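Work package 3, deliverable 3.1, input record:
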Amino acid sequence: MADAEGLKAADNYGLDIPVSAQSYYLKGLEYADWGIKDRMSRIFNKKSGKTVMLAFDHGYIMGPTSGLERIDLSIVPLLEYADSIMCSRGILRSCIPPTFNKPISLRFSAGTTILNELNDECIIDVDEAIRLNASCMAIMVSVGGKYEAKTIQNLVRTADAGNKYGIPTLGVTAVGKELVRDARYLSLATRVIAENGATFVKTYYCEKDFEKVVAACPVPIVIAGGKKLPENEALEVAYKAISDGASGVDMGRNVFQSEDPIAMIKAVKGVVHDGLSAVQGFELYNDLKQIL
Ligand code: R5P
């Protein structure tokens, strides 16, 4: 029962202190709802405004990818260094201890595999994202592909459900025959994904005019790492993408297939969060590699 007597009178109104102007730190999300902002601020570092996501969802279309044969051995030791993890619900439930408490980018669409034409996908029920405490739902979007309409509809339905429950939607530029890694295609694809409701967008880096891809996308962009490169080249891609305005990386093979995955993810974080150049990042990689 509430106390009716002896209550301390409220008198600390700070009448001479104006309420500070508040501004959210991520591009295009000033007017997003509280739950969306809360979850995005788990994924994106509040000081740098950037993120290093560790992607290991490859098996959902590729089966046991090199480096992902045993998630418990290759990925679990890396979890503590990632800002966020991206995986399927199957791997999350079977291999990822729930005590790690990392924000989860949940692979949220599924359908065909590399044995068939990719991107003929459906979406998972939003209840699963809530049950798994997902910080965002990642949807494949095949702009220009055979399943363009279907995957954009998947994006729209995911964004609707996400807005209902305050869960961000990550629109992923799908891999497929239509994926041309130039600014013309990538700016079209990322803009379409953002306009159709994605809270942030994952795409690929291109050498020429990537800053225009970022500029034309009204929400944050993170880049996928792509196929395994020598460590210095992968760090160069990360550095250039960040210099051109990307808000982070969602990197898989260039981390977990590295000769030294822990040194590599630490070097990537140095480039993404701490302003290291690609050369400095590679020096850090080599230093860490030596002492491990
Ligand atoms: C794409 O959506 C895939 O499922 C991966 O998450 C993505 O390609 C990132 O991994 P990687 O850096 O190996 O390309």
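Residues 148-165 form the longest helix (18 residues).
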